[in-house]
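This follows on from our talk about sequence and fold. Please put the record directly below this note.
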Amino acid sequence: MKRFSKFKKQIENLFEPELEMEFCCYAYPMRSQSGSTSIPRFCVKLGKEVIWDVPKDFKISQDYIHSWSGDNKISELVRDYIDTPIEKLLVAEFANEKVFFDYTNHPRCKETLDINYGLTEIFKAADRRIGKAKLVEWAKKINNPTVKLIIQKRFKK
């Protein structure tokens, strides 16, 4: 994977500039008795407002965070989005959009975690390559308040 700054630039170049939308990744150091690691935080900002934030929005607890951080598939998801041909974008299914973690053998948790990021919907709503008519028609079928917010801001409805 390329450095995040180059990766960030590639995805942000697809966004409608008026939106001032930004895709970010921060690394937070975590220390424990077994060593230290960095936990990634991915977020999407619309102007100065954070409209999508993982792990925060997905309630990934401290018990899960170390496992999630190494296998969250977000970078792969964004790469898949960037590489998808524009004519397939509105109908594409992205394998890494939904991730499943089985913690049933974990000493404390004993459960599973099923996450649907909803990130590609946000990217589609902001993607300058998609025409207004197609995008508005697509957005009518989407039940995502963040998508509605982006469409409203983008087309000033």
Observations:
- The longest strand covers residues 21-32.
